Sequence to fold (304 residues):
Amino acid sequence: MTEIVALLQNIAPLLEKTIFRQMSQVIFGMLVASGRITMLGLSRWTEKGGSYRTIQRYYHRALAWKTIQWLFFRKRFLKLEDEYVIAGDEVVIGKAGKNTYGLDRFFSGIQQQVIAGLSFFAFSLVNVREEHSYPMQATQMVKSAEEKAASKAKAEAQKVTSALAGGAREPTGEKKKPGRPKGSQNKDKQEVVLNPELVRIQKALQSLLETIGTTISLRYVALDGHFGNYPSAFMVRQTNLHLISKLRSNAALYPTFEGEHSGRGPKPKYGSKIDVRKMDAKYLKENGSLVLCAAPPKYGGYNW
Fold:
C-alpha cells in the first residue's frame, strides 16, 4: 500500500485530499481482489475508509483523467530523448443488462463475433526504443440513433443478398437499371466525408494532442488493419500526423503518372498499380532487419 501511495504523489497536485484517499483505496482493492471487479467487491477488499458508500461517491465524481494520466506519465516515464508514436485500438467489453449508458452490439476481436457490451477507443504512447506502451486516454464509443438504423438496414440488405445467393426468389419491386444514373456528376475523391466512427476517433485524437501539447514531437499514429484505407488516412492527416497501418485487401496504391502523354485523350493521373509485395527500392527504407515503407506515392492525393 505504501508503494501505491508513493506513486500517486505524482498526481496529488491535481486531486483533492478526499479524492486522493479514495483513489488509493480503490487502486489497492483492484490489485488484491480476485475475480470480477465490482464496487461491492472492492469495498470488501479495501482497508478502513473504503466502504461501499465511499467507493460509490468516488465513482460519481468527474475527474480530468486525460490530464491525470499525462501528468503521471510525464513525471514517471517520459524520456524526451526517445521517439514516441501514438497507437490506437478499440476495446469491447461484454456487458449484460439494458440500462448501461452506451450499451449496444459491437464486434469483439477476442470472441470473433458481435456481442452486447460497451466499446472504448484507447490511445497510448509507445516508446519506440523501449517498445513499451503507456495508456493515455480511453473514450467510450456511443452510436447515434441514425447509425443504429443504418446498421440495421445494412444487416437486412445482407440477409436479402444471402438469400438470393442461396437460390431464393428475388423480392418484388422495381429493378435497378444497370450503368450510371442519368444526371450524376463526378465527385472530388480527395474530399472525404468521414463516417461517424472516424469522426469520434478524430475528436479523441485531437483531444489527446491538445493534452500533450508541444512537449513531445509526434509524427505517426499506428492503427490496425481496419483503418488501412484512404478515409482513415485522410482523418489522420487532418491532425497533421501520418498513418501507420496494414493496407486493406480491397485498397490499392498508384503513383502519379510520370510518363510522356501520347496526346490522345486526357492525360493520365495515375501510373501502374503498385505491388505492395514487391515494392520499388525507392519506396523502401531499411532499419536493422526491418524494411519499412518511406514516403512513397500519392494515393488519391494523399502521400501514403
